[in-house]
Write a structure and sequence with these properties.
Layout: E1 2-6, H1 10-20, E2 26-31, E3 44-47, H2 52-62, E4 67-70, H3 77-90, E5 94-97, E6 109-113, H4 116-126, E7 132-136, E8 152-157, E9 169-173, H5 180-190, E10 192-198, H6 207-215, E11 218-222, E12 233-234, H7 237-248, H8 251-254, E13 261-262
Parallel strand pairs: 1-2, 1-4, 2-3, 4-5, 5-12, 6-11, 7-8, 7-10, 8-9, 10-11
Antiparallel strand pairs: 12-13
Helix pairs in contact: 1-7, 2-3, 5-6
The structure holds NADP nicotinamide-adenine-dinucleotide phosphate (NAP).
Amino acid sequence: MRVLVLGGTGEGRALATRLAREPGLEVTTSLAGRVADPRRPPGDVRSGGFGGVDGLAAYLTHRRVEAVVDATHPFASRMTGNAVAACGRLGVPLLVLRRPGWVAAEGDDWWRVPDAVSAASAVTRLAPEGTTVLLTLGRGGVAAFAGDDARHYVIRSVDPPDGALPPRRTLLAARGPFTPDAERAVFREHAVAVLVTKDSGGDATAAKLITARDAGLAVVMIDRPPLPEGARVTRSVAGAVAWVLGRSTGPSASDSPERDIARP
Ligand code: NAP
């Protein structure tokens, strides 16, 4: 069975690694090709956009793909939307693998906002002028803060951020996972007053939230974009493995309900 994993996440790599051990599966992982030096999963890897819904549909048809797992990042909503549309059009089974979002614990001072523009507005209320704000938004979203010359921004991302940047800034090139000790050192060195992040979920980048909690700092948390209506979703790599293996042994097994697979 030919399986396409839409990757770019640790879960995508873990899934490809696990499926590579299964006889009878031909697994290809697709990466967007944005990161200069991506962590490559085992097995066949392709790189670069497909060219929208039509391009993805043409790829799935040409490669005779029989199942797709969308293991892209929770904020990669365009790719997920395209996958739902292309697979829906062709009748190719699709599972979306989404790690759970973060949940605030006692002592957290989180301010949930829908997007980067709202986050920039929240920062003007939460971070006094002259203080430092740590942005961990990846490449995108930083432009929303470009108009603020009253605060200093420490901007951390794997590759340099896109678009306009705030005038007072420090760029930190770094790739997780980050340890609590390393995060404490970053917060201390830059005298971080407020953290702005996206609700990516997962363990690899959660240490900054614990650091902020321990230091009593406010966190502006950008909510995830909603999943497309009707998408079949699992929260775990194990759930995705079970779904793929179920499909490879016959459609009736694959369509049986999984404990952690749900259609919203
Ligand atoms: P996006 O906005 O949803 O996607 C924009 C376009 O990039 C898509 O329409 C598609 O181009 C292409 N694309 C995205 N993921 C792809 C994939 N796995 N394989 C082939 N093409 C892909 O996505 P994004 O937020 O820019 O994220 C890009 C990649 O980085 C994703 O693979 C994601 O898993 C990873 N990532 C994203 C974040 C984040 O915060 N957004 C964080 C960590 C990792 P076409 O329309 O031409 O097909």
